[in-house]
Each structure stands twice: as structure tokens, then as C-alpha cells.
Design a protein that fits this description.
The complex is a heterodimer of chains A (234) and B (635). Chain A is an alpha+beta fold and 234 residues long. Chain A has seven helices and four strands; from the N terminus they run H-E-H-H-E-E-H-H-E-H-H. By secondary structure, chain B is mainly α. Chain B has a two-stranded antiparallel ribbon. The chains are: A alpha+beta (234), B mainly alpha (635). Chains A and B meet through helix 2 and helix 6 of A and helix 2, helix 8, helix 11 and helix 17 of B. Chain A: One of its GO terms (biological process) is positive regulation of amino acid transport.
């Protein structure tokens, strides 16, 4: 008899107890805000009890991954105060002791990535958040745990900055162009000089003519100015 | 009745006569460079005139001076100031067949100073203009990655948060002021050379050198690409822009006329200045280019065509720019509104989609009525599309901040970024060709370098010296130095030179002789329009603009704007006064080229008085004319 009463009390009391544990602004609880329409637009799904069940299941999953010793279940995630916005509060209770709440810090660790970098497994600890997001087809911005900042992606540092590569290509092309043009200029000049030397005889005749006028003209006689009367204006 | 002119002895001996010109034309004295065909010449001139100013100065002026109404002063001054000056430079270059120093020396030896001033201005402007091209190249090099580096803030050293300087301003601001310029907080704080900027500057000068190596033989080929590509890219951007949301708002905003602005004198002065600088007059480059033409080339037609193309390009690029700015403003407006709506939904736990853009104002009013304190605490931003549209920016701010931000919001951003910066690069490079021409040819004419030095060597030396001096702009404070050069080296001296050019041609060379020359060259005398504008209207307009500029610059406190993360109004730029020693630099930039004009005349006068041999007026020793003759008069 007594046992039956105790069992009844337990069955009735536990949810009630659970409800008192989860309250808005609870010291060990987190508020979650979900923006499905912003994330998915036309393909947005309806938020209902089944989705809530999935949420509880994924949170239990995250807790199990972090605390490998303890086995969390869907009942250990208690949700309350759901609004039309789709935001609600949740707390996590320990599987062994239903009255004990898991501290805020531990829940945060389970959800978000570790802040220290692990060189050999860079993404495994942030996978929890990633997996939670993916379960709902949402992102860090549309599935918010208020109070837990989304971790920043590690900067991708390539060995050579990409701009140096493009710069190298351009400078290489420019140098090639300069050398090609300068060399071709030199070759042209040499060819001209060769050509000049071959008819050097004609040059000398023309030069002799130039000196005759008393005006020393270097090189080719300038045919543009044959007006002799100009110089008699004195 | 002959138009009054100043006495000018020996002019006939210094310049080739019409018969000589005909003879030179037929016998083709081969040493002077020539254009391969008319297209090269037109493309080179169009490239020289159409530059970065058409893309980033004109749209701003248009939008800030009454939109469509600005077209009226712009077009009027284009016709009264731009076309006559352009025709004058083309005609005098074609007639006297020489670069700027050669032309003015031939008109009167005491006018050599005008040519030297052109040389100095071309040199100084070329230095800072190529630095802008170096900046364009840096952005171009950085466009080959996805996502673009200016689309998001970088993470700070501890990986805890985004860099604070970036979050307080914006990723594009941060990339420009920090990653590109690494700007210091004042012009006095030099901050050392930034190695990446030095590399880009080196690349820019080497590229310019390879295109200008052999003078117009190489630039003539390069302009087929550099002068035509910008139009292709502008058209692509126009088509892309028109398919984006909000582009038509931008275009409407640009062209909505506000006729009251026409009463404002600064509208007319800005229009006049824009026409003047946009035509790249007084640099000496146009005179040089035109001197390589055949004698009977129709320079009148060329001047009109190029002016029309220049004006059309300004309007076309303004349309394209503002379609993209309209898109950016709409995106910003949408983001702002979305942020406000989200804040409201979160604060009042309303269902998603209950407040949309359409019912935002109504819902806000309702909520404000019932819960005013909560609304106050939310600190909602005012979202106004007109404010976003009128964040009118010009110059480097437009290209490297506003436009790059717009590009990050477009799909396939790297492609648009690459196209945009290639366009800016081509616009800048084709203008640099004219600058280099305006620097190298006068140096050859002045016989600064020995005659047997090839053109490649002289161009190389000019590029090398410019690069070394332009390292000032690669410092942390380089941006401030560039703004200084832009305000002073490229403004007042050009106006002085242009005014002197007109006085020289009309009153010293003689407008009657000039008319006859043009009749000889193109077959008919210039009509009444040219006579009136050359003699009175254009010099008057240039004089008015000069006086206005001079008075404004001298009377106002000369200030500059600086990027200072620790200032109070950050990210608004801080207004600082120049230190005292800057005034020396300002004098060197603006004063020296202007004073060289009378200075050379005085110098020559003194030299003539001191020496016994009176070498007057017949010494024309220019590589470009290859004429060496002098007469000596016993005094």
C-alpha cells in the first residue's frame, strides 16, 4: 500500500518537480531562440511537439558525447515557457539524481566547441554544435543559445597569400615584356648601323656637301631647309 | 582690322612656314614619330581624357549639385570652355610639330616657362596618379579569392573575437585603412614603408614602363586595349546593375533634377573645374600627341568628337555607378529594417513573419503606444533609403569602400571585383601615357639628357625617379600625402598654364596668324564660335575659376581628414590641421610650377642682357623638330 502511494507520488511529483526546476531566468537554464522562417524561407517547417522531442534528443546526445561516463536520456532535458517566437527555456538534470541540475558551465561546454585548439582533432569538439544545427537545418545565427557565443571559425592561413601569386605572375610577364622590347630595340639599332656602314660611301659625299656652306651639319643633310635666300637677309 | 597682339619679333624664323610643312609632309622626314593610323591617335586622346575622374568625381558632383540639373552647367561649360581649349591645343601642336616646350619656345623664347611648368605638373601628377593605380592593382591581386578579403572582419590574435577596429567601422573600411594603407593617425607620423605597397608600386611603374618604352610606338598598341576595355566593363556592369534590386532607385536619385542648385555659384564653379580637369588640358600631352599627326589632319573635328566622347563617358559611368550604389543602399536599408524587425520580434516574443516591411511602421506605432519603455530600450536605428543613397562618396572612398562593399553583396563577387579593378586600371594607365608623354618629350626638347641617349633610357630614368619619389606614398601616411598632392599639384598650376596658353596663342602668336594656319591645315577658317571663345570667353572662365580656387584655398584653414581608431567620432574621419612645415611643401607643389612661367622669362631676360651676343628668337633646338639654325644680330 505504502509502496503504491510512493509510486503514485513519484509519478505525479516528478513532472511537477521537473517543472519547478525549469523556470524562465533559472540560474542553471539556457534560453533557446529558433528562427526557422529566416533560415529556410519557403521551405520552413512547423515547430511542434515532435520537433521539440528532437531537440531534447539532440541535447541528450550532446551531453552524452561530452560526459562519456553518464547516460543521458530525453527525460533529462526539461523544457518550459515556449513562446510563439519559438523560444523556450531548458535545463538539464542529472540521470542519477533527478533533483540535481547540471551547472550552466557544463551545459555550455557540451554544446559549444572547446576554446583551446587541439592540433590533431581540430573540429571534433565543435561537432556538437554543428550536429545540433544540422539536425534542424539551421545555423549558429538561427538556432541561438542565448549566453553561449558561437565560436569563431579558425582563420584559414594559406602558406602564400593568394595576392602574392597573382603579383608574381604579373611581374613575371612585365619583366619578360621589358626584356623582349629592349632586346628587339638593340637588334634593330645594330641592323640599322650595319646598313649605314654599307652605304657609308654615300654618307661621306653628302657630308662633304654639307660642310661647303660653312655650316657644319652632322649626319644627314636636312632637306627640309633648302631656302638659300633666307641666309642672305643680313 | 587686325586683332591687337603683343610685339613678337622673329616669329617667322622660329617656326616652319606653310611651304616647309607641305614639303615635310610629302618627303616624310622620318625621324619624327608618327601615328600608325587615325584610330590609334583618337584612342590615345580619348584614353588620356577619360580617366578616373569620370568614374569617381563626376557622379558625386552630379548627385550633390542637383542631379539632372547639373547637366546644364556641365554641358554649357563643356561647350564654352572644354572644346575651345582642346581645339587650341590640338591645332597648335599640329601646326608647330613639337612638344609643349618646343611649341611655346617657338612662339616666343620667353614663354619656355609655360612648357617647363607643364613638364613639372605632368611629373608631379603622374607620380601620385600611378600610386592610385598601385592601389587598384593591390585590390586586383586580392580579388582572386573567395570570399573576398574585405567581405568579413578578421579574427583577432587570441581567436576570441573579431578585431575591434573592424567591428566598430566595417570590413571594407578596415581592409582599406588597415590592410591596404596601414594608415597612421596624422601626416607627420610617417610609419615607415609598407612592403606590400612598395611591391605594388614597383609593379605599376614597371607596367607603365613596358607600355611607354618606345613612346607612341608601344603606347599606340597598348591603347587598343586600355581605351576600349573600360567601355566593355561599364556595359557589363550596367546590365548586371539593372538586374539588381534597387538599381533604378539609384539612377532616379542621381538624375532627379533640383533646379534651385543652378542658383548656387559653387555648382557652376565645380562644373567648370570638372570640365577643365577632365580634359587633361595644360599637361602638354595633348599638344605632343597632336604633333605626330599629318599637317592636314582635321583637328577641329577631332576636338569636337573627343569632347563629346568625354562628356558621354561621364554621364554613362555616372549611370552605372549609381545603379550599383542604388543596389547597395537598398541592401543596407533592407538589412537595417530586418535588424529592427528582429529586435522587435525578440523583445516581444512575436511569431516570425508577423512584422514585415509592409506593416513595419504600423506595428512599431502600435507597440510604441503600448510599451514605450521597451521600445526605447531597444534603441532602434532609423532606416531611410534617401540617407543611404546620399552617402555620396567620391574619389578613393567610392572605389575602395562603397563599390567594394556593393560587390561583396553580389553573387560571384570575385568576378565583379576583377572586372571593376581591371577597368579602373585601364582608365588610369591610359591617362598615365599622356602624363609620361608630357614629361619625357619636354625633357628631350630641353636637352637635359644627351641627344644620343635612346628614348628607352630617358623613359626609364623618368620612371625610376618617379618611383623613388613616389615611395612617400607607400608609407603609413601615404594617403594623406596623396590627398595633399591631389589638392595642390593638380589644381592651381594647371589653371595658370591654361590661361597663359590662351594668352600666348591669341595675343602673342596672334589670332590672325592662327586662323590662317588652321585654314591651311583643315581647309576653312575657324568660324565665329571659335573666335569668340578663344579671344574672350574661355580665358575669362579659366580666370574666374582660378581666382575662386586661389581665394578659397588661401582664405580657408587648410585641413585634412585622418583615420584615427582612438578618436571620439570613430569611424567618422577626424579633421586635422596641417602642421606648419607642410606649407613649404604646398608652396613647392603649387607655387613652383606657377612661378616658373614668369621665372624663366626673367631668367632669359637677365641672360640676354648679360651676354654680348644677342641671340634673339631664332634658337629652336628641339629633337622633335630636328631643326638647328640661328641667326646672330649684332646689337
Amino acid at each position: 500500500m505504502l509502496v503504491r502511494i510512493l509510486v503514485l507520488l513519484y509519478l505525479v511529483g516528478a513532472p511537477a518537480l521537473a517543472q519547478t526546476l525549469c523556470q524562465p531566468n533559472a540560474s542553471n537554464g539556457y534560453r533557446v531562440r529558433i528562427s526557422i522562417k529566416t533560415a529556410l524561407g519557403n521551405q520552413a517547417y512547423e515547430w511542434n511537439e515532435n520537433e521539440m522531442f528532437l531537440f531534447q534528443a539532440t541535447m541528450a546526445f550532446a551531453m552524452r558525447r561530452y560526459y562519456k561516463t553518464e547516460t543521458y536520456n530525453v527525460d533529462n532535458i526539461i523544457v518550459c515557457n515556449q513562446t510563439r517566437r519559438v523560444s523556450f527555456w531548458f535545463v538539464v538534470i542529472s540521470p542519477e539524481n533527478p533533483t540535481m541540475l547540471i551547472p550552466k558551465a557544463d551545459v555550455e561546454k557540451a554544446v559549444s566547441a572547446l576554446t583551446t585548439r587541439l592540433p590533431c582533432r581540430p573540429m571534433s569538439n565543435s561537432m556538437s554544435r554543428h550536429r545540433i544545427n544540422n539536425a534542424f537545418l539551421l545555423t549558429d545565427r538561427t538556432l541561438e543559445f542565448l549566453g553561449i557565443h558561437p565560436t569563431l571559425a579558425e582563420p584559414v592561413n594559406p602558406d602564400t597569400p593568394p595576392w602574392l601569386i597573382v603579383f608574381g605572375v604579373v611581374i613575371g610577364a612585365v619583366f619578360a615584356g621589358i626584356i623582349a622590347l629592349l632586346v628587339s630595340s638593340l637588334l634593330q639599332k645594330r641592323r640599322k648601323e650595319k646598313g649605314m656602314m654599307e652605304d657609308g660611301q654615300d654618307e661621306e659625299d653628302r657630308q662633304m656637301k654639307g660642310v661647303e656652306n660653312g655650316i657644319n651639319l652632322d649626319g644627314i643633310y636636312n632637306r627640309g631647309f633648302t631656302d638659300d635666300d633666307r641666309f642672305t637677309k643680313l | 582690322m587686325r586683332f591687337p597682339k603683343l610685339p613678337n619679333l622673329g616669329l617667322g624664323d622660329r617656326i616652319p612656314s606653310h611651304q616647309e610643312l607641305e614639303r615635310m609632309e610629302k618627303e616624310e622626314a622620318g625621324d619624327r614619330p608618327k601615328w600608325d593610323n587615325k584610330t590609334q591617335y583618337m584612342l590615345t586622346c580619348v584614353g588620356f581624357c577619360v580617366g578616373l575622374g569620370n568614374v569617381w568625381r563626376f557622379p558625386y558632383l552630379c548627385q550633390s549639385h542637383g542631379g539632372g540639373a547639373f547637366m546644364i552647367p556641365f554641358l554649357i561649360l563643356l561647350v564654352l570652355e572644354g572644346i575651345p581649349l582642346l581645339h587650341l591645343e590640338f591645332a597648335i601642336g599640329q601646326r608647330l610639330r613639337s612638344g609643349s616646350v618646343g611649341v611655346w619656345t617657338a612662339i616666343n623664347p620667353y614663354l619656355t616657362g609655360v612648357g617647363i611648368a607643364s613638364l613639372l605638373v605632368s611629373f608631379l601628377v603622374g607620380m601620385y596618379y600611378n600610386t592610385i593605380i598601385a592601389w587598384v592593382m593591390w585590390y586586383f591581386f586580392n580579388s582572386f579569392q573567395n570570399p573576398l578579403p574585405w567581405s568579413q572582419c578578421p579574427v583577432n590574435a587570441n581567436l576570441t573575437d573579431l578585431v575591434s577596429e573592424c567591428t566598430r567601422s566595417s570590413p571594407v573600411d578596415y581592409f582599406w585603412y588597415r590592410d591596404t594603407l596601414n594608415t597612421s593617425t596624422s601626416i607627420g607620423d610617417s610609419g615607415g614603408l609598407q612592403w606590400w605597397m612598395v611591391l605594388c608600386l614597383l609593379c605599376a611603374w614597371l607596367l607603365l614602363y613596358v607600355c611607354c618604352l618606345r613612346g607612341i610606338a608601344t603606347t599606340g598598341k597598348a591603347v587598343y586595349v586600355t581605351s576600349t576595355l573600360p567601355y566593355v566593363v561599364l556595359t557589363i556592369f550596367l546590365i548586371r546593375g539593372l538586374t539588381l534590386k534597387g538599381s533604378l532607385d539609384g539612377i532616379k536619385f542621381l538624375f532627379t533634377p533640383d533646379l534651385n542648385e543652378l542658383m548656387n555659384p559653387s555648382t557652376w564653379l565645380d562644373a567648370g573645374a570638372q570640365v577643365f580637369y577632365s580634359f587633361s588640358l595644360a599637361f602638354g600631352g595633348l599638344i605632343s600627341f597632336s604633333s605626330y599627326n599629318s599637317v592636314h589632319n582635321n583637328c577641329e573635328q577631332d576636338a569636337v568628337i573627343i569632347s563629346i566622347i568625354n562628356g558621354f563617358t561621364s554621364v554613362y559611368s555616372a549611370t552605372v555607378i549609381y545603379s550599383i550604389i542604388g543596389f547597395r543602399a537598398t541592401e543596407r536599408f533592407d538589412d537595417c529594417l530586418e535588424g529592427n524587425i528582429l529586435a522587435l520580434l525578440n523583445a516581444f516574443n512575436l511569431a516570425e513573419g508577423s512584422i514585415k516591411e509592409g506593416n513595419y511602421a504600423e506595428s512599431l506605432q502600435n507597440l510604441n503606444g503600448t510599451f514605450p519603455e521597451t521600445i526605447q530600450s531597444l534603441d532602434l536605428k532609423t532606416c531611410d533609403l534617401q540617407t543611404f543613397l546620399s552617402q555620396g562618396v567620391e574619389g578613393t572612398g567610392l572605389a575602395f569602400i562603397v563599390f567594394t562593399e556593393a560587390i561583396t553583396k553580389m553573387p560571384v563577387s570575385p568576378l565583379w571585383s576583377i572586372l571593376f579593378f581591371i577597368m579602373l586600371f585601364c582608365l588610369g594607365l591610359s591617362t598615365m601615357f599622356g602624363s609620361i608623354e608630357g614629361t619625357v618629350v619636354p625633357l628631350q626638347d630641353l636637352n637635359i639628357f644627351p641627344k644620343r641617349w635612346p628614348k628607352e633610357a630617358i623613359t626609364g630614368i623618368v620612371c625610376l625617379v618617379s618611383f623613388v619619389i613616389a615611395l612617400i606614398f607607400a608609407q603609413s601616411s601615404g594617403n594623406y600625402w596623396l590627398a595633399l598632392f591631389d589638392s595642390f599639384a593638380g589644381s592651381i598650376p594647371l589653371l595658370v598654364i591654361a590661361f597663359c596658353e590662351m594668352i600666348a596663342v591669341v595675343y602673342i602668336y596672334g589670332i590672325d596668324r592662327f586662323n590662317k594656319d588652321i585654314e591651311f591645315m583643315i581647309g576653312h577658317k575657324p568660324n565665329l564660335f571659335w573666335q569668340v571663345t578663344w579671344r574672350f570667353v574661355s580665358p575669362l572662365i579659366v580666370l574666374v575659376i582660378f581666382v575662386f580656387y586661389f581665394v578659397t584655398k588661401v582664405s580657408s584653414n587648410v585641413t585634412y581628414i585622418a583615420w584615427n581608431p582612438s578618436s571620439e567620432d570613430f569611424p567618422t574621419l577626424e579633421v586635422l590641421e596641417y602642421p606648419a612645415w607642410i606649407y613649404v611643401i604646398i608652396f613647392i607643389l603649387a607655387g613652383v610650377p606657377s612661378l616658373v612661367v614668369p621665372g624663366t622669362a626673367i631668367f632669359k631676360l637677365i641672360r640676354r642682357c648679360c651676354s654680348n651676343k644677342n641671340v634673339y628668337g631664332a634658337e629652336v633646338d628641339t629633337v622633335s623638330a630636328k631643326v638647328q639654325m640661328f641667326t646672330t644680330k649684332m646689337s
